[in-house]
Amino acid sequence: MRSGSFSYHRIQRTLARPCKCIGLFQFHTCFCCIKVGFIPKKLSCEPTSRFYDYPFAYIRFNAYFSSFSGRNFSHGSRAVSDSGVHCAERDNFLDENGDYDKFRDMSVQDSGELSLFGDHNDGCQKNPNLNFDEFAVEEEGDDCHDDGDSFMVLNSCNGHHVQTEDVWRVKLEEDEFRHPLVREICRLIQLRSAWNPKLESDLRHLLRSLKPRQVCAVLLSQDDERVALQFFYWADRQWRYRHNPIVYYVMLEILSKTKLCQGAKRVLRLMARRGIECRPEAFGYLMVSYSRAGNLRNAMKVLTLMQKAGVELNLAVCNTAIHVLVMANKLEKALRFFERMQIVGIIPNVVTYNCLIKGYCTVHQVENALQLIAEMSSKNCSPDKVSYYTIMSFLCKQKQVNEVRDLMEKMAKYNNLFPDQVTYNTLIHMLSKHGYADEALEFLREAEVRGFQIDKVGHSAIVHSYCKQGRINEAKSIVNEMLSKGCSPDVVTYTAVVDGFCRIGKLEQAKKMLQHMYKHGCKPNTVSYTAFLTGLCRNGSSLQAREMMNVSEEELWTPNAISYSVVMHGLRKEGKLCEACNVVKEMVSKGFFPTPVEINLIIQSLCQEGKMDEAKMFLEGCLNKGCAVNVVNFTTLIHGYCQKDDLEAALSLLDDMYLSNKHPDAVTYTTVIDALGKNGRIKEATDLTIKMLKKGLDPTPVTYRTVIHRYCQMGRVEDLLKLLEKMLSRQKCKTVYNQVIEKLCSFGNLEEADKLLARILRTASRTNINTCNLLMETYLIREMPLSAYKVACRMFNRNLIPDLKLSEKVSKQLVLEGKSVEADNLMLQFVERGCLSPQCE
After folding, report:
1. What are the transmembrane regions (predicted)?
2. Which contacts (CB < 8 Å, 24+ apart) does range 69-75 have?
């Protein structure tokens, strides 16, 4: 079938015989889902004319094909009411297809993709009630509203059908991750930055050969969850391929471990539109993702979404809800949910109780946690070791070793849970982690007496704890004890000792320990050498650390990003900025990128020494290499230029920020505004302030103080008041006029300060009283007691009480100038208000 033969009338004749539309359906899929110019061999169509050249025919065909969405059409594997999914879900992973834009420009929706593989939904129908529009954009952590509506969802549950915990979880074998197809696809994904049509064609070909579990292995193999999500979307758009249901659940499980809640929501929406059964576990993954993003309100709204979708809550989702509330420090709401689920017949299990025990320990209510364990047996739910370990962990953190031992006895006495090697390993690690090495050593001795063998990991934890405290002799004795027991220390143990020597400044012994590791057949790794580099830099030997990195290849170790960062910070602190910049350049050349904080420290150090050109060259080099340069880095460099009064360079760099797609913030503008005002360029400062407001940036308190200081310094009060009105319309500041009066007083412009006094004498705030007192004191210093007296009278008229001691000074000054009537009247005002007794007067 040739594309040039497609016309409106031919399509009309073809649609009259639906049974012969399969070829046409395939043709539609071909041109909707593949790159321009790529035509499958199985379809003998030539790319001489594309389907979007006939928009009206396409619309007619699309409308006709949509009529089959509710019917049993055995040849199509996807419902056409999936309209618009791909347009909404498209992420530019490997897709450079411009044809979609042409369809979109014609206002034609993508009607979905077709497959020849048949229906994989097992008869599952899409749920039209699954509406995600109610998830409004919330601020992170916005949980000010009560979640009682979410709890009401439990009232609709049928307790007889929600007791099972049938979690859809895919467990992959190691062989599936090592499969050649999986490894090759992962390799191609890593080359996505240099993508070309041939590589995409290879990836598309390999994708069709993958089994569902292998697709899951590809997703789980990605270090960056965003890349996994983009691959998921890209694969979903490919012709003659569709995701198996287990792939959706694996993708949701991956996203539940991140803050990518919007991605999880879109995957769940795709499941509904593809007709994939949305089990309760899928909604549970979305809840956890919202929780990790700090959005408790939307996390609990998922329960309402489940109800509207006709999916009943089960115990697993209820446990997830309680876990989400506990992690958000909403223990009271978790307890309410716990009570409500029991009322509707959902019986909690040990996981439910463990979540609440964790919540009690988080808020330091260990007594309530112990009481909950005591109540579990009466509810036919015996606590497990996790229940006790959770409380033990809290007690270890508080160094309550006796209480831990009592809990171990109760665990054995009441629940027949006897301490085993896992118990002792847990206690040793917990105590060592919180710096209680002596107590951890006691449990190690007790475990050995009971016949348990604590491995090198437990010993290393104690060694590391001793080394952090600088108790290197105790750490060395533990290492010697390990050797005598035949428990050979590993690289982690020796690295802890090296770090311990470095912490107390014994660098020679640390170096000998690195050599000692070779003698015992334990090769130092990058972490070991990095610990030694840290010690060198901490003791002012950064150049020696730099030399060690230069000969790292001879020592058969490779520095990592942390190694470079340690040496760079050491050189910077010692003032060796040129060497520090060279380290960063070498770091970038090795494929390690410094963080914006590290970049900023180098720029700041160079600016402090006045090396502005070197700082700018360093910033441009980082930007060209693809480092994560942010607005703070530019602001630091601009501040350096302003400190040197090189305003032209600062303004030029401000323009360069837009070219680099790094938009200045309020701090950046404030820095330049201050420098312009300092140099008397008030007109330019005003224009820049207005430009900042027009860009939608709110002035900060520092912006207000800067503008007020510079304008008052120049005596431009009228211009200042006009500018402040525009700033206040954007961002309110209650003390702005107080600041103006106080600044005018500091510059001696008392006449303008007195004019603004009426603006602040409206509220009886402490700030306004302080401002008036300052103005009175300034008048008094200028030997103008009558003006100070008038300010005090205006304060009394507004029921504000001036400072008594200051008023007494004003009164004495008035008497000296022969104004005794005003002096007596001022003191009388205090007597009338009960602030001064008549005898004192």
Report:
1. none
2. 74/118, 74/119, 75/22, 75/25, 75/116
- Please tell me the number of Cα atoms within 13 Å of 739 on its side-chain side: 19
Per-residue pLDDT band at 704 (split at 50, 70, 90): very high
Cβ-contact 293, 140 below 8 angstroms: yes
- Which one, of 447, 440, 486, lies nearest residue 463 by Cα? 440
Angular region, 490: left φ>0, alpha ψ -120 to 50, beta rest: beta
Distance CA 238, CA 235 (A): 5
State the pLDDT at residue 390: 92
Three-point CA angle 282, 284, 290, nearest 5°: 110
Query: Mean pLDDT across the stretch 213-241?
Result: 91
Query: Is the distance from CB of 376 to CB of 383 less than 8 angstroms?
Result: yes
Write the CB contacts of 393 (distance below 8 Å, at least 6 apart in sequence): 361, 426, 430
CA separation for the pair 709, 701 (Å, rounded): 12
CA 117 to CA 778: how far, in whole Å? 88
Q: Is a pLDDT exceeding 50 seen at residue 437?
A: yes
- Banded pLDDT at 755 (limits 50, 70, 90): confident
- 567, 549 Cβ separation under 8 angstroms: yes
Q: Please, what sign has the CA dihedral across residues 205, 209, 213, 217?
A: negative
Residue 517: what pLDDT?
86
Three-state secondary structure call for residue 711: helix
The number of CA neighbours under 13 Å toward the Cβ of 324 is: 34
Q: How many CB atoms lie within 10 A of CB 801?
A: 16
Helix (H, G, I), strand (E, B) or coil at 507: helix
Which of helix, strand or coil describes residue 54? Answer: coil
Handedness of CA 243, 248, 254, 259 (dihedral sign): positive
Summarised one tens digit per residue, pLDDT across range 57-97 is 333 334 433 333 333 333 333 333 333 333 333 344 444 33
Q: Quote the CA–CA distance of 829 and 793 in Å, as a whole number.
A: 9
| Whole-model pTM over 0.85 | no
- Burial letters for 766-794: b for 16+ Cβ neighbours within 10 Å, e otherwise? eebbebbbbbbbbbbeeebbebbbbbbeb
Token pair belonging to 725: 């009105």
Total residue count of the chain as it appears in this document: 841
From the CB of residue 442, how many other CB atoms can be counted at a distance below 10 Å? Answer: 16
Tell me how many degrees the CA angle 48-53-59 measures, rounded to the nearest 5.
Answer: 135
- Structure tokens that stand for 371 in this block: 């009481």
Residue 268 backbone dihedrals phi, psi, to 5 degrees = -65, -35
Q: Please state the domain extents for the chain.
A: 3-105, 763-841
- Residue 92 to residues 100, 388, 799, Cα–Cα distance (Å): 12, 49, 66
C-beta of residue 93 within 8 angstroms of C-beta of residue 234: yes
Write the CB contacts of 295 (distance below 8 Å, at least 6 apart in sequence): 138, 140, 141, 142, 143, 261
Q: Which of 236-250, 312-326, 550-564 has the lowest average pLDDT?
A: 550-564
Cα–Cα distances (Å) from 451 to 385, 417, 447, 454, in that order, read 20, 17, 6, 10
